[in-house]
Amino acid sequence: MNTILSHAFVKNGAYSPLALRLAAGLIFTAYGAQKLFGWFGGYGLEGTGQFMSSLGLEPGYLMALLAGSAEFFGGLLLLLGLFTRPTAIALSITMLVAIVTVHLPNGLFMANNGYAFALALMAISLSLVVSGAGRFSLDNLLATRLIVVRRPETLNAQAA
Questions:
Q1: Closest Cα to residue 67, out of 86, 39, 45?
Q2: pLDDT above 70: residue 107
Q3: Number of compact structural domains in the chain
Q4: Taking Cα atoms as reference points, which of 99, 96, 88, 93 lies closest to residue 125?
Q5: Which of residues 9 and 135 earns the better pLDDT score?
Q6: pLDDT tens-digit series, residues 25-63
Q7: Full residue range of the structural domain in which residue 81 is found
Q8: Closest by alpha carbon to 82, among 30, 33, 145, 9?
Q9: What is the pTM for the complete model shown?
Q10: Using CA atoms, how far apart are residues 61 and 52, in angstroms rounded to an integer?
C-alpha cells in the first residue's frame, strides 16, 4: 500500500504543472457542470444522457453521469492538485472516448466540432500523469508531510 501511495504522491518541485492544472481544472469543472447540472448553457443529465444514447453509449443517463462526474470532480481535484495522477488518467480516458465517439468524424478543427480541443485536454491530462501536480499542490503537501518514503541513506544508517 505504501508503494502505491508513494507513486501517486511522488513529489515534483516544478512550477509548470500549476498552469496546466489550473487551466484544465477550470475547463473540466465547467464542462462537467454543464453535463451534471445544466449550468453554463448545458443540458444537464437528462439532455446529455439522451445525446449519449443517440451515440450508442448506453445507458445514456449513466454514461452522462460518469462523464460529467469525471469532468466536474476531476476538474476540482486538478484545481486542488489532489490525486492528480489518477485523476488525470481518468480524464485522459474520458477525452479519448469523446474524441472517438463524438469528434473524430468531424475532423480536427473546432469550427466543425472536431477533436482539436478534446485532444489538447487529453494531452494536458497525459502531461499531468507524467509530471504530477507540481510544487503548489495538495499532492506535494501530502508527499512531504504524510507519506514517509525511505531513502537509501536512511536504510544504510539503520543497517549500521
A1: 45
A2: yes
A3: 1
A4: 88
A5: 135
A6: 999 999 999 999 999 999 999 999 999 999 999 999 999
A7: 2-159
A8: 9
A9: 0.84
A10: 8
